[in-house]
Design a protein that fits this description.
The complex is a heterodimer of chains A (about 325) and B (about 230). Chain A has about 325 residues and is of the alpha+beta class. Chain A contains 6 helices and 12 strands. Chain B has a single domain, classed as Fumarate Reductase Cytochrome B subunit. Helix content of chain B is about 65%, strand content about 10%. The longest helix of chain B has 29 residues. Chain B starts with a strand and ends in a 10-residue tail after the last strand. Classes of the chains: A alpha+beta (about 325), B mainly alpha (about 230).
Chain lengths: ~325, ~230
């Protein structure tokens, strides 16, 4: 339709532009609702000449064809009315669809936010966190390292004391290791057992889930070295003792001595080369508030997983409980 | 004058536009919940702080405090839909050829200046009428690029070790967080200008973003093309 009109329009302009063409041009800029509120005003411009097949083109200065002009104006008015009618119809239709879509969106939102809670968030959000975790674990590579900084860039910041509200007697502290190969009892270790493992020092950016970060220097033993020295029981062990390369248990759980704070970690992250059982910060032994005598430092996780004052390390076959994951946070929070 | 119903915005673009609106709002809102936990940005120099993002009154007025976990859960849920919708929009815009109306060219910056002066009442001559004027082209193209920027800076904050190269490209982890925050402000500013212009442009224009059609008079090129 518009193509056809345009053609007529062209002819109209051509013929209408003859000298002294009757009516004054329809005024007006294209701004401000062009023709919109004007509704069906037959403000006959030169286009009024664009008649149908048998045009009665008004000649310049012709006084006769008043009636023809009127008829033409009426025809245009009728056509405009039809355009407006179709426009209104289209508008009505689209706004109904839009309204229905908006309602559907609100309904979906209402549904989403009113679901049963799973670990402090409605389950669809928990499921999304788990999906994100699966994708992140697929993408994870142990050789991707947190950038290192010069030791001179190291600073200090303290945050969080859940599970270590009171100081402990460092002399009597012992680390309990559970789930070891060939043992049903927990193994109790002193700090010297950790210090016997190769010492690793690194200056990396500690990242808090709150959004801040701080470069700090840590020293300690790689968890991978610890695990090599104190290997876990493998699930296959019960069936056949001759497993050549036993698959490590998929999870590790860490707890403060009072059990007040606990984190769960998957094995890939625990075996990352920058995951340390640390006993020094910025060249000094850990202070009580930094988690003396031994804490976890794991660059591929937010600070909340970097458990201070380790009381228990447990190899686990199933996903361990996690203090913050029970309070609405993602369990994985891998960086 | 004769009227016609002129197709203006394709269906896919209208859907993407209106789906993006609540999604972006949710991303910004859940982003505020996250930002609250470490609200360190401010306008100021040295000791002098002109404005702190955000005053406690703001947090309490909108109940923002103490929702970090919720904010992260929402942010990492809706991000998929936000990105997906953006990807659909970009693919459609390229494949359909609509990008020709959208992407500015080398003349656009001069014209955009005239459009701006015109809108401020400082330039009276008529401007070329197209579906999107140069100021719109620049604004709408920029906002799409900003969406890409939010995705990239977001990824850099979300997985800073797996994408450590991205963080270093963006100037480091804290810088990426700040850039992500700035982009959120960019959307807010865009929104304010956009809504102002839509109100100024009037019903015919607004309706075309819903129905797809604008009412135009045949003899005068495009109708009102503002916003």
């Amino acid at each position: 339709m518009s193509d056809e009109n345009r053609k007529h329009d062209d002819t109209a302009v051509a013929s209408g532009s003859a000298p002294g063409a009757a009516e004054p041009d329809a005024p007006k800029p294209a701004t401000e609702a062009a023709g919109l509120n004007v509704q069906v005003s037959p403000a006959g411009g030169p286009e009024s000449a664009s008649a149908g097949p048998a045009p009665s083109v008004p000649l310049p200065g012709d006084t006769q064809p008043r009636d023809a002009e009127r008829a033409e104006e009426e025809r245009i008015a009728r056509e405009n009315a039809e355009v407006l009618r179709r426009m209104r119809q289209q508008t009505r239709r689209s706004f109904l669809v839009a309204g229905a879509a908006a309602l559907a969106g609100l309904g979906a939102f209402e549904w989403l936010t009113s679901r049963r809670e799973d670990g402090g968030v409605p389950w669809p959000f928990r499921q999304a966190l788990r999906l994100n975790e699966q994708l992140a674990r697929d993408y994870f590579r142990p050789n991707r390292l947190a950038p290192s900084f010069p030791a001179s860039a190291a600073g200090d910041r303290l945050n969080g004391d859940v599970g270590m509200e009171d100081e402990i007697d460092l002399a009597s502290w012992q680390l309990s290791v559970e789930g070891l190969a060939g043992r049903d009892e927990p193994l109790m270790l002193g700090l010297d057992a950790i210090k016997k493992l190769p010492r690793v020092e690194m200056t990396t950016e500690f990242k808090c889930i709150e959004g801040w970060s701080k470069v700090m220097t840590w020293a300690g033993a790689r968890f991978s070295a610890f695990m090599a020295a104190y290997p876990p029981a493998s699930p296959a062990e019960d069936d056949s003792g001759d497993d050549e390369s036993p698959t490590p248990p998929p999870y590790v759980s860490l707890e403060t001595p009072d059990g007040g704070y606990y984190v769960g970690l998957e094995m890939e992250s625990m075996l990352h080369p920058q995951t340390l059982l640390a006993y020094e910060i910025n060249g000094q032994p850990l202070t009580q508030k930094h988690g003396a005598p031994l804490r976890l430092v794991i660059t591929v996780k937010y600070g909340v997983k970097n458990l201070k004052r380790i009381g228990t390390i447990r190899y686990c076959q199933s996903r361990p409980a996690d203090y913050w994951a029970e309070r609405g946070y993602d369990w994985y929070i891998g960086l | 004058m004769r009227l016609e119903m002129r197709a203006k915005h394709p269906l896919a673009i209208r859907w993407c536009h209106w789906i993006n609106f609540p999604l972006l709002a949710l991303m910004i809102w859940s982003g505020l919940w996250i930002y609250w936990a470490n609200d360190v940005y401010r306008l100021g120099l040295g000791r002098l702080t002109l404005f702190h993002f955000f005053p406690n009154r703001f947090y309490s007025a909108f109940g923002i405090s103490g929702s970090l976990a919720k904010g992260m859960a929402w942010h990492f849920f809706f991000m998929w839909f936000f990105v997906l919708n953006g990807v659909v929009y970009v693919i459609y815009t390229i494949a359909s050829g609509e990008w020709r109306y959208l992407v500015p060219d080398r003349h656009s910056f001069r014209e955009a200046l005239l459009v701006t002066l015109h809108d401020l009442g400082l330039y009276q001559k008529p401007l070329p009428q197209r579906k999107l004027n140069a100021a719109q082209q620049i604004a709408y193209t920029t906002v799409v690029l900003m969406g890409f920027g939010s995705m990239v800076t977001g990824l850099a904050i979300y997985k800073p070790i797996q994408f450590a190269w991205l963080d270093s490209l963006l100037g480091g982890y804290p810088a990426a967080r700040f850039e992500h925050f700035l982009l959120a402000w960019g959307y807010v500013l865009f929104f304010l200008v956009h809504v102002t212009q839509v109100v100024r442009a009037g019903w015919n224009n607004f309706r075309s973003m819903v129905s797809g059609y604008e009412l135009a008079s045949i003899e005068e090129g495009a109708g009102d093309a503002h916003e």
